[in-house]
Amino acid sequence: MTHDHTHDHSGGHSHDHDHGHSHDHGHSHDHGHSHGHSHDHEHTHDQAQEMTLEQKLNTLFSHWIGHNDSHKDNFLSWAEKAREGGLTEVASCLEQAGSLSQEVTKKLEAALANLPGK
Questions:
Q1: pTM of the model
Q2: Does 66 have pLDDT greater than 50?
Q3: Which of 40, 78, 89, 99 is in the most buried spot, having the most CB atoms within 10 Å?
């Protein structure tokens, strides 16, 4: 994605030029152009700094834990419905899936607790 914008320079002139951007959590600028004079291309785009690995993992673990717990709750809810409907083996499998999901949540919580800064 590119966009045009104007830079005002001391010396009373301005000019337009394209800047290439890639937007995957941070972004980079392609400033491959020459104007016969030097000027700074520092920009503020109100973008957050790139997250550290620990910050990314913290965010992911929190998401995965909530997501996994939601699956566990659905498995157990449907296990109850299956049991009420006479589908005993299906209910048993769903209960086991709920139990396994709880074990996954415990592992994710342990990993989260071991992140530096936690």
A1: 0.56
A2: yes
A3: 78
